[in-house]
């Protein structure tokens, strides 16, 4: 069962069946008990009227008047019966309504006792009987035992009980259907935001919308926010691959043109050496450009913590070898509380571009500082400063554009800061350029 609505509806239906079933059983038991108690009270009243009408007769028996106070005792087959038995169960008197019937003797109560029981006629008709044993005192002072017994057919009561059960099941079935219909309508309204998410994701796949809307309930706002983050990161990654391929194609134009020109001079001395120089340059360009797609800040929604201190130590050690001729003094300070969750390759690309640029432009000194952005939530603020010529304020914004360089004579591609900016933005951070107290540039990258 793949539908969430169907699962909820089935679960609610099972719960309704269980609780309604328990309720039906309880109500049925209560109705049956109340009905039986009412029948017992009626029989008790009938038996008291029977005792009140009895009179001592001749030959040591009790006699009943020809006209009974309860007319049903005089109507054959009325369903209300009475009899009086003497010692050893000898029949003394039987109501006219019991003509042709044999009321079961049942359990004979002892003197002064009374007894309710459910018994059956020979044809299987159920009866509710009430018996009482009395010691009747006759005029001669003798006490003689008698058992007064009244019985009522339960056919009428069972018919009422069956009718009550039918009504009970009917009403509960109607209530259950109404509730299930109401719940299904309510679930349709409650699950509408999920259907909206599905429709908007389909629109994103079709290209008719860019992100999910923000008009969702509180419980789904986090889902929508994270989904938008994944979509934007996927788009950013695709853009990075596209830019990388564009840059690769653009960078290869010059070497290819040079090789094409060299082909016309292949008979001249030094052709092979000059061609190999261009081929090596092309190889270097390819390796450099293909390294750039690593700057994918959020390829995975699950990010690992980057070991900032260890990565920076390896980076600084490597750059000191690369710039061994200048031998800049690199100061490294890392706050242990600073953190970054993501790809270590992204961090190395980000920090490597900044520190490498600082080493290129510094006079003799580079300072790398990593601080925490927020004591409670963590984060990282990476600051790289140098004592070089610095970056003019009017050129800072231009340097963040791809391919912009202050000095064309310095080796490079003019895209290092653009890569840093892209990585920072992919993590929700920002890049700022300022003047360092060392005299040169100070570039700060903040990652929340």
Give structural notes.
The protein is of the alpha+beta class and 448 residues long. The chain folds into three domains: 156 residues, Beta-Lactamase (2-Layer Sandwich); 86 residues; 145 residues, Histidine kinase-like ATPase, C-terminal domain (Heat Shock Protein 90). Helix content is 49%, strand content 18%. The protein contains nine helices and 14 strands. Strands 4-3-7-6-5 form a five-stranded antiparallel sheet. A five-stranded mixed sheet has the order 9-11-12-14-13, with helices on one face. The protein has a two-stranded antiparallel ribbon with strand order 1-2. Helix 4 packs antiparallel against helix 5 and helix 7 runs antiparallel to helix 9. The longest helix is centred in the first third of the chain and has 50 residues. The protein is rod-shaped and about 160 Å long. The two termini are 42 Å apart.
């Amino acid at each position: 069962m793949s539908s969430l609505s169907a699962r909820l509806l089935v679960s609610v239906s099972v719960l309704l069946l269980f609780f309604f079933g328990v309720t039906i059983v309880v109500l049925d038991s209560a109705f049956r008990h109340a009905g039986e108690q009412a029948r017992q009270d009626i029989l008790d009243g009938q038996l008291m009227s029977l005792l009140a009408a009895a009179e001592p007769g001749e030959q040591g028996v009790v006699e009943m008047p020809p006209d009974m106070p309860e007319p049903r005792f005089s109507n054959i087959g009325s369903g209300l019966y009475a009899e009086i038995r003497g010692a050893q169960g000898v029949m003394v008197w039987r109501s006219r309504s019991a003509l042709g019937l044999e009321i079961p003797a049942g359990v004979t109560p002892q003197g002064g006792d009374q007894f309710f029981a459910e018994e059956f006629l020979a044809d299987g008709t159920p009866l509710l009987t009430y018996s009482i044993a009395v010691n009747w005192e006759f005029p001669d002072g003798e006490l003689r035992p008698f058992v007064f017994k009244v019985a009522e057919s339960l056919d009428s009561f069972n018919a009422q009980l069956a009718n009550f059960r039918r009504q009970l099941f009917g009403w509960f079935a109607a209530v259950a259907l109404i509730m299930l219909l109401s719940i299904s309508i309510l679930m349709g309204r409650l699950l509408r935001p999920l259907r909206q998410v599905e429709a908007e994701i389909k629109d994103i796949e079709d290209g008719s919308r860019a992100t999910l809307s923000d008009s969702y309930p509180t419980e789904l706002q986090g889902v929508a926010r994270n989904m938008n983050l994944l979509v934007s990161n996927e788009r950013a990654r695709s853009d990075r691959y596209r830019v990388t391929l564009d840059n690769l194609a653009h960078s290869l134009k010059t070497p290819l043109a040079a090789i094409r020109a060299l082909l016309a001079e292949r008979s001249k001395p030094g052709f092979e050496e000059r061609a190999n120089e261009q081929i090596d340059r092309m190889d270097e360009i390819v390796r450099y450009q293909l390294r750039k797609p690593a700057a994918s800040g959020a390829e995975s929604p699950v990010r690992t913590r980057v070991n900032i201190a260890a990565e920076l130590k390896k980076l600084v050690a490597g750059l000191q070898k690369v710039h061994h001729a200048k031998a800049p003094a690199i100061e490294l300070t890392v706050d242990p509380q600073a953190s970054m969750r993501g790809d270590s390759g992204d961090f190395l690309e980000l920090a490597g571009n900044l520190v490498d640029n600082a080493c290129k432009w510094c006079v003799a000194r580079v300072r790398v500082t990593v601080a925490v952005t927020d004591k409670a939530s963590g984060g990282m603020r990476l600051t790289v400063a140098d004592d070089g010529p610095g970056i003019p304020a009017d050129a800072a914004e231009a340097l963040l554009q791809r391919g912009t360089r202050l000095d064309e004579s310095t080796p490079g591609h003019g895209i290092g800061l653009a890569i840093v900016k892209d990585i920072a933005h992919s993590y929700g951070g920002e890049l700022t350029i300022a003047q360092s107290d060392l005299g040169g540039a100070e570039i700060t990258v903040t990652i929340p």
